[in-house]
Amino acid sequence: MEQGLITAVGIDVSKGKSMVAVRRPGGQIVLPPIQVNHTAGELAGLAERLKGIGGDIRIIMEHTGMYWRPIAHALKEAGFFVSVVNAILIHNFSDNSLRKVKTDKADALKIANYGLTFWIDLRDFSGEDETRQMLKMQCRLYERTQKASVELRNGLISLLDQTFPGINEILPAHYRTTRGHYKWVDLSKRFWHKDCVKKLSQVAFLSAYQKWCKKEGYRFSDTDAEKIYSAAQNAVATFPQNESTKTLIVQAVDCLNAVYESMAVLRAEMKRLAALLPEYEAVMAMEGAGDITGPKLMAEIGDVRRFTNKGALVAFAGVDAPPFQSGSFEAKSRHVSKRGSPHLRRTLFQVMSVVLQRGSTDNPVYLFMDKKRAEGKHFYVYTVAGAAKFLRIYYARVKEYLLALEAERQTAA
What we know:
Radius of gyration: 28 Å
Helix content: 55-70%
Mean pLDDT: 89
Shape: elongated
Number of domains: 3
CATH architecture of the largest domain: Orthogonal Bundle
Number of helices: 17
Largest sheet: 5 strands, mixed
Low-confidence stretches: 324-332
CATH class of the largest domain: Mainly Alpha
Structural class: alpha/beta
Strand content: 5-15%
Number of strands: 7
Distance between the termini: 38 Å
């Protein structure tokens, strides 16, 4: 067994299997590429085989979806240094060859070579990273669930336009229970047809509505009740008041509420996981970082300490416009790169919307966007510029906060 030699293990990950290659400096191939299936037996066998190679071993793999997780966890538990690298960095890395070979074996060797080249810059996958991964998966699931809720909500409104037009516009949209239900949605299940209200006297409806509010945990308002009753008198329904129509509305409401309940659970879990991260307090103190956008920012950005500077974070988000120069030509205007996570860019746009709505003159991001807007810039232009500035501030504040925490821990120790 050879001791002291640096040994890079490159793993090209795919679904259910991986290609593994081992290299050392000078072009030495210690282990030619071999295929390993993501089964307990084969992963344990790979760990034993790598231990037998010896040397200072670091394992490098691409961050490709969730396929890397089984082999990364197995090797981490076996005591190895495991680094999960952004796939773009591997893709852009030159393996010092004019030939453009794309096979799993060639990719495994290329990843190992990347590890040797950037040996001192590799970051070990940690327990904190695991929390971030779980938070990211929760956030992604929340996005998909939210998309489903929009489709179901629009479908319910389309049905209500045939039975009780306008009922979704009478009650404010912010009326929501801890389960995630909206008042107008629950109300449309109880009064699913305009005739359910119209057939009652105004006094009888007020009494029925008040009892329903008390039962469902909503605040009762005479004004809202009068609006609902008035709308029922003037509404025109195209679907009859029968059991078939009732089944349509009730099932649509139940489906939508089931999704809303799932979203409430996901929001709570996102907040819980985000609170475990060291930068939680610093991020949540920033304007625009709410109960949803705050955890999503932390999930998509990850640990800011992995970025060498604030420009690297802006580039990671894809909201930078990199310079382009060749000889005497220099581009005066460039589109943003759109590299990195589209989920992060979407979250940044949500944050910028909040910043613009609040219009706080104490917020440097708002002042910057307002200045660009006054110059006649397009909405997209000044929003992207604001997002880039927000990320630069995020990087500075969070990194400073983490350094202060680390100093406190060292002082306490």
